[in-house]
Design brief:
By secondary structure, the protein is mostly helical. It has a domain of about 120 residues. The protein contains eight helices and no strands. Helix 4 runs antiparallel to helix 6.
Length: about 190
């Protein structure tokens, strides 16, 4: 008789264990369907953000915004959340409204609505979120969601399509700079 304990049964992973199989087919289909829309959405936001960065820096230096930032810094986590979500909820529907205006034969109005709402959204919501973020991350469910969203955005940025778009954008920017310099030299400036 052996003094060794019996060998434990080999661990068998059930067939539904996602760590082995990866995401389910509905998740894969949803991801494939949502990716082009997300790329377009984030590309629009990135283009607008790139264009308004100087405005954001200027807004951040305004005395009024500094007072607002101090006031937001004194708020609790949930009032800070409301302060960020209300302008976001009011301005985000402008994109589909602008797209509808564009599609119904009023392209300039549609573009103006989308660009105007993006400018206001980015200058207010981005700045408010920047100030309130440390407090917002103390809310457990918000921190959990923020990690998931930022993880998904990181995955999206790592896709070949986004890397290609970023490379193309850099090349276009360099070409635009060269063209601007050539025009300035030709004009004698």
């Amino acid at each position: 008789m052996s003094s060794h304990p019996p060998d434990p049964a080999p661990s068998v992973r059930p067939a539904h264990d996602r760590s082995v199989q990866g995401p389910s087919w509905p998740v894969r289909i949803l991801r494939m369907a949502a990716t082009p829309f997300a790329l377009a959405y984030f590309l629009l936001d990135a283009l607008v953000y790139w264009g308004v960065r100087p405005v954001l820096r200027w807004v951040a230096r305004l005395p009024l915004f500094r007072r607002v930032a101090r006031w937001v810094g004194r708020l609790g986590p949930y009032p800070s959340l409301v302060l960020v979500l209300v302008p976001l909820a009011l301005l985000e529907p402008a994109k589909p409204i602008g797209a509808w205006l564009f599609a119904t034969g009023r392209p300039w109005l549609g573009v103006a609505v989308v660009v105007g709402a993006e400018l206001v959204k980015i200058t207010t919501v981005e700045r408010l979120f920047h100030v309130a973020k440390p407090k917002l991350l103390t809310i457990g469910w918000f921190a959990w969601g923020y990690e998931r969203v930022t993880g998904w955005i990181a995955w999206l940025k790592a896709t070949a399509a986004v890397r290609l778009a970023r490379d193309l954008f850099r090349r276009l920017r360099r070409a635009a700079r060269r063209l601007t310099l050539a025009v300035r030299r030709a004009a004698g400036h």
